[in-house]
TrEMBL record:
Protein name: Coproporphyrinogen-III oxidase
Compartments, as annotated in UniProt: Cytoplasm
Broadest EC class assigned to this enzyme: oxidoreductase
Cofactor(s) needed: [4Fe-4S] cluster
Amino acid sequence: MLDDIRWDAGLIRRYDTPGPRYTSYPTAVQFSHKVGSFDLLHALRDSRKARRPLSLYVHVPFCANICYYCACNKVITKDRGRALPYLERLEREIELIACHLDPQQRVEQLHFGGGTPTFLSHDELRRLMGHLRSHFRLLDDDSGDYGIEIDPREADWSTMGLLRELGFNRVSLGVQDLDPAVQRAVNRLQSLEETRAIVEAARTLQFRSLNLDLIYGLPRQNPDGFARTLDEVIALQPDRLSIFNYAHLPERFMPQRRIRSEDLPSAAQKLEMLQRSIEQLRAAGYRYIGMDHFALPDDELAIAQEDGRLQRNFQGYTTHGHCDLIGLGVSAISQIGDLYCQNNAQLNDYQNALENGLLATSRGLVCDEDDRIRRAVIQQLICEFELEFATIERRFNIEFRGYFGEIWPQLEQMHHDRLIDLRENRIDVLPAGRLLVRSLCMLFDHYLNRQDQQRFSRVI
């Protein structure tokens, strides 16, 4: 349940600053072009030697229509023929990566994201999954977490049946808002009936988990309208809900320039939307996992959090953080041991590299010991809302209080504000601090400065 959250408007106003979502530490802002394909090959060799299990992320960038709020790496086109050249390069990347791994490394997690993965035709989806199966050890017993992002406007019952046949057992549906006025303002017209049809298909076809995405802070939204949307969504009984804060950054994301600033809800309205959403979800029995994510008590994420097994990586909250994450496709990010690396974000550059038989790695970072220490601290706080200093001290042979002495006054201030309970041997995030856990993690971020902060969404 959400009883572990306490809403304190005064503290939220004080600590609600822009900051990273910490799907990695260090964050992608710190990636540099000093890291390239040579580093990736070394990391793949180490993964092969250790025979670590794998998590695969496959990026399909194409969308038939543009959503004005979107900050994803995507290509807007009505030309379905553009998928085949991309698919051919993607298959080449799969071959180049797989030959450096052990065929016995199990793929415990697979995720197709975008863009719109179902932009691919049924034949192309079959071809891609067949290629993955021929080069990686995908599981055939439905025990893996194999998910795909779905735009309900780009799928139907036959699509869902195909995806289930291909081995997918988790789906995430983009909804954002059901109010037609909001949908028109962001150029995403999507009826409740379209969404409900895909939900019913997923249930009937026995997909194991269903996630729905909503966004608050969009143009023309107001607290009453968003509450109606959430009531309709709760009635669909998704296993998980993600309720994201819209970050209006038109200087960085060109499509957002089509959104009029005067149509955006006020900061007070956004806070009310979030507060009421938490109340509605509490009444419906959902638990707050953290970082905009909610789940039913019997969901795998909720159980993992209770058991201390919850982790976080570029796939979001996961139970597979122990896997080496291999990113495939334009702009995809890999995390293999202490290496982060990202493919070229420009479609032509990505495709040209693979056309020439080269990996498309364009930038990245290799973690040093300080990065590893801070990553472990942030991971623990953001997943479990608690941290025992002795765990970090034993693992890294440091004295916690001394190592983080420079931020101790800020930690004490958070303790004074009742966001955390700071003791001699541990930190516990209190109910008023759970919504603001990003602010706590930011204290441990060695790289963060005011200039970098402006690249991120606000905490609330």
